[in-house]
């Protein structure tokens, strides 16, 4: 029995109850949304993981990407990154390793953290070959099966990169064509082998595997725009349409899913992308990488992503994939993962402050901070802050004797107004 | 003759021509917008400064705040911060010093950079007293006159904090009351002295001074919300209304101005704030501090400000005041000023990508970056990047022999797709 089968029968399971408790909502609502496919709780039957709900009425979640590359293979480093992401508040982790003993790395990461783990099996199928295009469709499905058996909670498959979307690409005028790694493998494979994408043409087989392990499917956006110029174009929307059709089939197979989205999108097109995807994919939970709101800020793409992510969250995005300062430049370090996770948590919270169903809960936290600020109660401020440690460090590096902060000292607006209010009160 | 007098007569001056050249627009348009008050070029007659236009149809500008505090008085540090802000692309600098020899500090900063300089004269009037409330209204106006004579290009006056807005404050339910430093001085002064704000009640006198030196007036938002809870409330809108009336009087006096805005605003209320202010202030150029989209990220308020600033820019904000990582915590260091300036430049550019009239120019830059990315042309990428130095440093810290970056190495999507396209081309 998959969770979705239970949900469709109206059975409220312990997983639904756990998520309902942590979100402060009714388990019945969770059950009904899972049945409809608007909430997903990724949790492979082969693994115990923290139960998180992604989707409608729930708080915005954050994923951290980690993993080795061909050039930097250090398992301990990746395990440390996974622990850092968890410690700083990530809700899920994707292992995107492409270098070294991939099975061992995945196992080590899954053992190190309790968060749900996602992966991209085609990376392993491709990375095991001399050339990406040499893998067979069996290699691709076998990689999926291996990950499922190992307990991966959700897998990304780029099933939307098919002959149809590639036709749209060829008739378009993209600058960066395909920038999704899995999308590029799939595209190269299709060109080389003269066949359609097996994950698309044999999608039912993929669903069989996913159902067996109750593994969630993350419908990857292999055609996502890789620059501002390419945003919201016909290949993007063609893929949204295909993904929407696959969402329908996934739900019919009682498998949970979510849909991945762009990418690089200017701020005035984010609403279009988010609402377009939600609409074309029948309100499946939406998982965005960014979106990055400009191309020209390498070194700061955790910030361009947080800008886009906040607005996308407000428009209805459920799950934000962090970007790090190393995006477009290098394999992230542990510090990059820390920074990326924190900044994406900020975006998720800022989105929740504006999301129906989340506003009240989220605003109560900011209100507590506001009271602590007015009272110059620094310890409470640091305890509420997303990264109280860094806040404390900055304050203490340049202290003042005034009780305020060293920006204003005894000219602090809070101090002056608090005093004026007292004076007024006494005068009455 | 003030620039606005010229503009109203249809005289196209060298200042208008300079801005038109740097923005790639018609000088006639600049002239007509200055006449209407929708573009401001701050430039005191006593000082030569870089000519920048702020307002309609123009690129989004960035201001950097620097200045000593009571507890940290080091003139060389502040001069270095001013140089840093200019070097990293700020369009204007405000000297907010409150500690030390304020005249000397202001002079040193004005000598060190060519950017337009703004100040808040009430800081000097208040800081020279034993208690803020001891200053006289003469002290306040004398400070304005001194700054004008010294060549300050724009001054902030919190003329919107008056008996009316304070009534709205008292009938409301704010948590943080007044968080503007100048606003708090004014409020305390009014309570203590039982009089209305001189900058409001004698606003014509202020305009006389400003006109004499053709100094622009920045209508400060002393009532700006200091937390998410207080955003978009009645005291805020009361101040917008007052500021709108003052905009009208300022224009009638042939003095250029802009209007300052919040503050802390959740992302779903930013459009309301920006459009509300634009509407109530007859499309005066709008200058925002942030807005910060959450209260709970001290240490990262350059980022919460960049998130709000990008969206606010898209909604029509003309001028973004940077926040730094030290916001709410300490006097910023030189590194903080660098970081704050860069991140705010990112927000301004991301806003321009979405602004009518700016899109085409801004997108051309991102398109060049996208081409460089596809071609794995790293030197060009670094030359286009907002902070190419840091981008290069990150890439070079973890290099790969593949020509790509160390995230993907030879599994780089760009490399794989470029190769597949070649293969396809040859196959034809």
Automatic annotation (TrEMBL), chains A, B:
<dbReference type="GO" id="GO:0009228">
    <property type="term" value="P:thiamine biosynthetic process"/>
</dbReference>
<dbReference type="InterPro" id="IPR038521">
    <property type="entry name" value="ThiC/Bza_core_dom"/>
</dbReference>
<dbReference type="GO" id="GO:0070284">
    <property type="term" value="F:phosphomethylpyrimidine synthase activity"/>
</dbReference>
<dbReference type="GO" id="GO:0009229">
    <property type="term" value="P:thiamine diphosphate biosynthetic process"/>
</dbReference>
<feature type="binding site">
    <location>
        <position position="287"/>
    </location>
    <ligand>
        <name>substrate</name>
    </ligand>
</feature>
<feature type="binding site">
    <location>
        <position position="94"/>
    </location>
    <ligand>
        <name>substrate</name>
    </ligand>
</feature>
<feature type="binding site">
    <location>
        <begin position="221"/>
        <end position="224"/>
    </location>
    <ligand>
        <name>substrate</name>
    </ligand>
</feature>
<feature type="binding site">
    <location>
        <position position="408"/>
    </location>
    <ligand>
        <name>[4Fe-4S] cluster</name>
    </ligand>
</feature>
<keyword id="KW-0004">4Fe-4S</keyword>
<feature type="binding site">
    <location>
        <position position="412"/>
    </location>
    <ligand>
        <name>[4Fe-4S] cluster</name>
    </ligand>
</feature>
<dbReference type="GO" id="GO:0008270">
    <property type="term" value="F:zinc ion binding"/>
</dbReference>
<feature type="binding site">
    <location>
        <begin position="180"/>
        <end position="182"/>
    </location>
    <ligand>
        <name>substrate</name>
    </ligand>
</feature>
<comment type="pathway">
    <text>Cofactor biosynthesis; thiamine diphosphate biosynthesis.</text>
</comment>
<dbReference type="InterPro" id="IPR037509">
    <property type="entry name" value="ThiC"/>
</dbReference>
<feature type="binding site">
    <location>
        <position position="405"/>
    </location>
    <ligand>
        <name>[4Fe-4S] cluster</name>
    </ligand>
</feature>
<keyword id="KW-0479">Metal-binding</keyword>
<dbReference type="InterPro" id="IPR002817">
    <property type="entry name" value="ThiC/BzaA/B"/>
</dbReference>
<keyword id="KW-0411">Iron-sulfur</keyword>
<keyword id="KW-0784">Thiamine biosynthesis</keyword>
<comment type="similarity">
    <text>Belongs to the ThiC family.</text>
</comment>
<dbReference type="Pfam" id="PF01964">
    <property type="entry name" value="ThiC_Rad_SAM"/>
</dbReference>
<feature type="binding site">
    <location>
        <position position="328"/>
    </location>
    <ligand>
        <name>Zn(2+)</name>
    </ligand>
</feature>
<keyword id="KW-0949">S-adenosyl-L-methionine</keyword>
<comment type="function">
    <text>Catalyzes the synthesis of the hydroxymethylpyrimidine phosphate (HMP-P) moiety of thiamine from aminoimidazole ribotide (AIR) in a radical S-adenosyl-L-methionine (SAM)-dependent reaction.</text>
</comment>
<feature type="binding site">
    <location>
        <position position="264"/>
    </location>
    <ligand>
        <name>Zn(2+)</name>
    </ligand>
</feature>
<feature type="binding site">
    <location>
        <position position="123"/>
    </location>
    <ligand>
        <name>substrate</name>
    </ligand>
</feature>
<dbReference type="GO" id="GO:0051539">
    <property type="term" value="F:4 iron, 4 sulfur cluster binding"/>
</dbReference>
<protein>
    <recommendedName>
        <fullName>Phosphomethylpyrimidine synthase</fullName>
        <ecNumber>4.1.99.17</ecNumber>
    </recommendedName>
</protein>
<feature type="binding site">
    <location>
        <position position="65"/>
    </location>
    <ligand>
        <name>substrate</name>
    </ligand>
</feature>
<keyword id="KW-0408">Iron</keyword>
<keyword id="KW-0862">Zinc</keyword>
<feature type="binding site">
    <location>
        <position position="260"/>
    </location>
    <ligand>
        <name>substrate</name>
    </ligand>
</feature>
<keyword id="KW-0456">Lyase</keyword>
<feature type="binding site">
    <location>
        <position position="158"/>
    </location>
    <ligand>
        <name>substrate</name>
    </ligand>
</feature>
